[in-house]
Design goal:
Chain lengths: ~230, ~220
């Protein structure tokens, strides 16, 4: 037994975790071109045959990689992303009308997710002013400068990938695999973390934790049988 | 030296010591290989690192350490990793000294279009809109024409990346600086005449005095 007072999370199989993502859900998925994406969860979602997802993510990676697998499987109806240039399948599906793609400037996407997890209604940014991104959006003036009002984003479920989790769900990310993960871990009703390793409480020192465990609802079990 | 290397080497002459620089995907990435000796330049990759270095030896790649194009990189001494909110706060908050981006079109004001061709190619803007709006200096590194069609045009026919003009445009034929009165021809490639640059440019160019040749 771990020390008193620590809430120990039960780990879920990827398959059990995939059951927590209903068809039609708005799903945030961490990662940047597949780096820092929870791949075992994505495989389990494809295996389950999930449908009609609205995916909020930086990009749709490449065919066969990360979120690209969900695109190939026809699981995604809407995508709110900053970039689809590396996935021709997403571009084809968008042009054919099979997937509704909303392109959001990357920094604006990050801030909208952050706002969603921080109790803010949105953010004000100059990015996108005067471009197609500004169409239909409110412009406000502060200190003589114009800003676009960009609304907060939240999701039903967020899937985040981490290098390490401890039994309490505290997360540490690695290098450029961090990207959108800590932001998304705050912006969904249910947050599922897929770590590469799960270590006893105390192995990860308080100062190094990127995402406090209280934000994590479920931890996916370690990758491989010993 | 092919034309891409020439563009990258000329852009690299714009690098200054002890600055934070973001390189876009594609041609701009080549600039990292051309840093003049003695300069310490911190390269940011918007997926969340300052201080990335060359691709590691075969078999030593870390799946958690790539550049914004998804290519494996290494981390130099002093590197720092962070999340996407921090990465773009650096970009928009005035902390980024320079960005180098590719271009599909630039107009007579120096405004850039580089994120979509309606109905044909829709990569998305990624970080480009934030970078053009937020970096202190915005350098467009691109070929002068697309299969003979000028990319420097009076008015954009493609969706703009930002209303903010670029600081400098570097092509294999010329260096052009957007100014309040239009595009100023600053340099021409060795052996390329002013007329040749003009013929390859659909927008008007302001030419005053001798135009020196580009140095690589």
């Amino acid at each position: 037994m771990p020390a008193d007072g620590v809430t120990v999370r039960n780990s879920l199989t990827p398959r059990a975790a995939a059951e927590l993502v209903p068809d039609g859900a708005t799903l945030m998925i961490g990662g940047f071109m597949g780096v820092g994406t929870p791949n075992r969860m994505i495989d389990a979602l494809v295996a389950r045959g999930v449908r009609d997802l609205t995916v909020i993510a930086n990009d749709t990676a490449r065919p066969g990689v990360g979120i690209g697998k969900l695109i190939s499987a026809g699981a995604v109806s809407r995508a709110i992303v900053s970039h689809i240039g590396t996935n021709p399948e997403t571009q084809r599906a968008m042009l054919a009308g099979a997937i509704e793609v909303t392109l959001v400037p990357q920094g604006t996407l990050a801030e909208r997710v952050r706002a969603g997890g921080s109790g803010l209604g949105g953010v004000l940014t100059a990015t996108g002013l005067g471009t197609v991104v500004a169409e239909g959006k409110t412009v406000v003036k502060i200190g003589g400068r114009e800003f676009l009002v960009e609304e907060a984003l939240r999701a039903t479920v967020a899937l985040v990938a981490a290098r390490s989790a401890d039994y309490a769900g505290n997360l540490v990310y690695s290098l450029t695999a961090r990207n959108f993960n800590p932001l998304m871990a705050m912006a969904a009703d249910t947050v599922i973390a897929e770590p590469n390793e799960i270590v006893p409480v105390g192995v990860l020192a308080p100062d190094v934790i990127h995402t406090p465990g209280v934000l994590i609802d479920h931890v996916v079990e370690r990758p491989l049988p010993l | 030296m092919d034309f891409r290397d020439r563009i990258a080497r000329r852009v690299a002459r714009e690098l200054q010591d002890n600055t934070l620089v973001n390189l876009g995907i594609g041609l701009p990435t080549l600039v990292a290989r051309c840093v003049p000796p003695g300069l310490r330049v911190y390269f940011q990759s918007e997926n969340g690192i300052i201080g990335f270095g060359a691709r590691p030896p075969e078999g030593m790649e870390d799946i958690h350490l790539t550049d914004a194009g998804g290519a494996f990189v290494s981390a130099l001494p002093g590197a720092a990793a962070f999340d996407s909110a921090m990465s773009f706060a650096l970009i928009r908050g005035g902390h980024l000294d320079m960005t180098v981006l590719g271009g599909l079109q630039v107009d007579r004001h120096g405004r850039l279009a580089n994120w979509m061709i309606p109905g044909q190619l829709i990569p998305g803007m990624g970080g480009a809109m934030d970078l053009v709006g937020g970096a202190r200096r915005v350098i467009v590194a691109m070929t002068h024409t697309q299969k003979g069609t000028p990319k420097i045009v009076p008015d954009l026919t493609l969706p703009a990346t930002s209303l903010r003009p670029a600081t400098l445009i570097v092509t294999e034929m010329a260096v052009i600086e957007p100014g309040p009165d239009g595009l100023i021809l600053r340099e021409r490639a060795p052996g390329v005449s002013i007329d040749a640059v003009r013929r390859a440019t659909a927008a008007d160019l302001l030419v005053a005095g001798d135009i020196p040749e580009m140095e690589f």
